[in-house]
Amino acid sequence: MKISTKYLSIVGILLFAVIISNADISKIFTIISGVNLGMIALGLAIVPVTILFKAIRWKKIIYTVGSNTP
User: Fold this and answer.
1) Are the CB atoms for 39 and 45 separated by under 8 Å?
2) Strand, helix or coil at 67?
3) What is the mean pLDDT of the chain?
4) pLDDT (tens digit, 9 = 90+) per residue, 6-22?
C-alpha cells in the first residue's frame, strides 16, 4: 500500500499545528531572547561552506565513476 505524499503533507501540517497549540509561547520567546547571536551568525556562515564542500565531493565522485556532468 503506497501512501500519497499529499496525505503525508496534511498529516505533517496537522502534527505541527498540534505541537504549536500545546507550546507555551511566552517560554519560547524567553528562550529565543536568550540566544547567543554570535553563535547563530557563525552557524549561518558555515552552512554555505558546508554545501560547497559537499558539491565538490559529489563532483569528484561523479568524475571517478566516469561521468562528466557539469
Assistant:
1) no
2) coil
3) 89
4) 888 999 999 999 998 89
Query: How far is C-alpha 45 from the geometric centre of its chain's CA atoms?
Result: 15
Asked whether 69 and 62 are in contact (CB, 8 A), the reply is: yes
d(CA 56, CA 52): 6
What is the rounded distance in angstroms from the CA atom of residue 23 to the CA atom of residue 36?
22
Q: What are phi and psi of 4, to 5 degrees?
A: -70, 145
The reported pLDDT for the residue numbered 1 is 57
* Spatial distance between the Cα atoms of 32 and 34, rounded to a whole number of angstroms: 5
Q: What are the structural domain ranges in the chain? A: 5-65
H helices of 1-70, in order, are 5-22, 25-33, 37-65
Give the Cα separation of 51 and 64 in Å (integer).
Answer: 20
C-alpha cell belonging to residue 13: 501540517
